[in-house]
Amino acid sequence: MKKTGLVVIVVVVLTACRTVRPPVERNVPVGPVTEEKKVQPQEESRPAPVKTVTPYRKPEMDVTPARNEMRIDEVNRALRDAYFDYNRWTLREDATEALKHNAGVIWAVKVSGGELRVVVEGHCDERGSSEYNLALGDRRARAAADYLVGLGMPESILQVVSYGREAPQCTEATEECWRKNRRAHLEVRAPQR
């Protein structure tokens, strides 16, 4: 009986001496707590919904059909060409700046009754064969279109066309003239109805 009583006492003492860990508080700063560092326990809350950000503001304009053509004409006059180096289709810094400008101009207009269409033309200088320049013009137009898509322009409104050397902006056989012909040119058109 003495053993049983001793076992009961040991169990009672061990149970009473058992340490209970307090709950761990999160977001408690280490070191002395001052008024500035006090952290209140955070309430359980749902995460805020993720907002999508578009790179350009798309203002809503009430444009009547009679003014559509004028608006599109104004947009086309404001667009800049993206120029390329000889025999290259990679975008230069000045070309990306021109394309950023163009994207902002295109978003500034909303045509009622449908989306705008944007034709991205690839052009080359007169050097090289027609077949080679058609392929090079296509690569230039696609590089410009891909950049515009990266800026947030819907791919569905873009149409890529290569003119190669067939539609030069300048016809003299000089380097200055050839430089003007190595370009991606954008043209905005009204939606097809």
The overall average pLDDT, rounded, is: 74
Placed side by side, the strands forming the largest sheet appear as: 1-4-2-3
CATH level-four homologous superfamily name of the domain at 83-189: OmpA-like domain
What is CATH's topology name of the domain at 83-189?
60s Ribosomal Protein L30, Chain: A
Please indicate the percent range of residues in DSSP E strands (runs of 2 or more): 5-15%
The helix-strand sequence is: HHEHEHEHE
Q: What is the helix tally?
A: 5
End-to-end separation: 103 Å
**Sheet/helix structural class:** alpha+beta
Q: Write down the Rg.
A: 34 Å
CATH architecture of the domain at 83-189: 2-Layer Sandwich
CATH class of the domain at 83-189: Alpha Beta
Gross morphology is: elongated
- Biggest sheet record: 4 strands, mixed
Proportion of residues in helical segments: 25-40%
In total, the number of strands is: 4
Please characterize this protein's 3D structure:
With 193 residues, the chain is an alpha+beta fold. It has a domain at 83-189: 60s Ribosomal Protein L30, Chain: A. 38% of the residues lie in helices and 12% in strands. It contains five helices and four strands. The chain has helices spanning 2-17, 65-78, 93-107, 130-150, 175-181; strands spanning 82-83, 117-123, 158-164, 183-189. Strands 1-4-2-3 form a four-stranded mixed beta sheet, with helices on both faces. Helix 4 links the parallel strand 2 and strand 3. The N and C termini lie far apart (103 Å). Residues 24-39 and 50-68 have low confidence and may be disordered.
